[in-house]
Structure formats: C-alpha cells, structure tokens
Amino acid sequence: MRQWITFILGFLSFLAVTIIILVLFLGNKPYSDTEELAIERAKSEKLIEDVERAYVYTNVKASVTVLGTNGKGELMAVFVPEGDGKLQTLALVDKITAKQARELVLNEMDVKKILHTKLGMESEEPVWEVAFVDEKDTLNYVYLSADDGQWRKRILNL
Question: What span is annotated as the signal peptide, if there is one (predicted)?
Fold first, then answer.
C-alpha cells in the first residue's frame, strides 16, 4: 500500500511539473514569435544589423522595440508596430540610457524593487517606462523622456 501511495505522489508531482513547464512555454510563445518577426523586419529593412535585445512595449497600441547596432556600428532603437505600420528609428547617441532612467527614478521615488525598464514610443516621443514596486508594495509606472530625462507621466499606487 505504501508503495502505491509513493508511486501516485511521484507521478502526480511529475505531471504537475510537466504541466507547469508546458504552460510557461506555450504562454510565452506569442511574445517570442512577435519579437522574432519584428527583428526580421528591422533587419530586412536594413535599419539594424546586430540585435542586442527586443521586447514588446504596449501603450495604446502594441509594438516591439528592437535594440542593437546598425551597419555603421551606432547604437539604435527600432520601433516596430503591430501589423504593417511604418517603422521608426532612434539613434541612442546622446540619449538617456536605461541605467540613467532607473537612477532618476531611484533618486526621486521610494523604490523597493524595479521590475523592468523599457524604451518605447508615447505620442511620437521616445520614453523610458520604469515599472517598480514601492515601499508600500504598490505597483507604479513612470515615463521619462529618452531625450532629456524629464518626467512625462506617472501612474502610481496600483
């Protein structure tokens, strides 16, 4: 009897781990596919040559931000909208970096943990979105201009 219980518990544990891995993999697949398509599009239009990072950025419409270098070796960001919209590019020379955006937020807000820092377009202006949890364990989003580091929008205490 004890062997049956051990077998059943072992099998159920294995099954639970398998289902969790499958759900995580399949749940992330649409994002991965979208990012891959955006990278291919940015490369095919010769806007970027070597890709460092790509991620989905969502405001009114979703887009993918592709960060990397162009053929001249300049650090660039390419904003690839959903569908067949026009791609936008931004040379990141003399712009606020992700690290600087995080430091600005850390200096002004009570930050417990920064969740992410993403570059995206808001009203045709490049902004850094910094999401963080504050000391009261509430979720916060702040948007800083990538051009000069000025605060554009704050969504606090969610």
Answer: none
Confidence of residue 143 (pLDDT cuts 50, 70, 90): very high
Q: Which of 94, 95, 117 is nearest to 105 (CA)?
A: 117
- DSSP secondary structure string for all residues of 99-116: HHHHHHHHHHS-EEEEEE
Domain count, the chain: 2
Q: Show the CA angle centred on residue 126, arms to residues 59 and 43, nearest 5°.
A: 90
Q: Do 32 and 86 have their domain in common?
A: yes
User: Is the same domain home to 127 and 142?
Assistant: yes
Q: In this predicted model, what pLDDT tens digit does every residue of 75-86 receive, in sequence order?
A: 888 888 887 778
Residues 129 and 68: their CA atoms lie apart, in Å, by: 18
Give the number of C-alpha atoms closer than 13 A to the C-alpha of residue 144, restricted to the C-beta side: 22
Q: Are 63 and 79 in contact (CB under 8 A)?
A: yes
pLDDT given at position 47: 82
- Tens of pLDDT, residues 115-129: 999 998 888 889 999
